[in-house]
Amino acid sequence: MIRKLIFWMGLLGVTQLAYCQDFEHTIEVGPLAGTSFYLGDANQKLFAYNRSVIGGLVRYPLNNRLALKSALSFSGIKGYSDTYQVAFNHNYLFATIQGEFNFFPYERSDYNIESSIVTPYILGGVGFIACSKQKKNATLLTEPIFPARAVVLSCGVGGKLKLSSRVDLNVEWTINKALSDRLEGVAELNNPYLLNQNMSFNNDFYSTLTIAVTFAIYTQKCECRSGFLKGY
Fold first, then answer.
1. What's the pLDDT at 204?
2. Where are the beta strands (DSSP E) in 85-230?
3. What Cα–Cα distance (Å) separates residue 21 from each residue in 64, 120, 166, 194, 221?
4. pLDDT digits (tens, 9 = 90+) for 164-200
5. What is this structure's pTM?
6. How many CB atoms lie within 10 A of CB 149?
7. Burial level of 198, CB count in 10 A (0-12/13-18/19+)?
8. More confident residue, 6 or 108
9. How many CB atoms lie within 10 A of CB 97?
10. Distance CA 220, CA 23 (A)
């Protein structure tokens, strides 16, 4: 599902590059905060064992439909397994690069009657999550395995609102599928069902729900041109 979403977002991106738009390019930066949770061998409930998220992002809109985004955040995962009587609570660093597709032409424009200052959007991309610190827990029966880390595939949905010509507010829910079964950092929960060789049955997911405020620190008016890269 995540791979299909990334494919369709890429196809939409190629299509959008064919249109000429009087678009103002910007570079947006800002802080983000929210909550995160883990889904895997030790937790199957949404928003259970949640941890706080704090970080920042940089976004570069390609046009009023497409944008590239990079984000770095600090959070963690925790959970408890009744089967193995094991608990864990680790701090994590999470870095990602994503593409965004806006459902509405997202811009504040006096010349485009279809432009909108609010839009829902979808996203897809890749990232990397790594354990920065493993916390000891009184119920932990074994020593943690080597520091947990994984490449992830991301997908998500969100909404954007222009508060002014240079300030934006967005809310985003992202689900990240880990390409390993080691996010728990505990030996008993490292591939307990021997399914790591099949990516479809890997159980570890890392999800975030965040709010971000971004500020446009650079703007450049686009000149309309002919050819495939019209408007760029």
1. 84
2. 86-102, 118-135, 149-162, 167-178, 205-221
3. 8, 20, 19, 52, 11
4. 888 999 999 999 998 877 777 776 666 655 544 444 5
5. 0.76
6. 16
7. exposed
8. 108
9. 13
10. 9
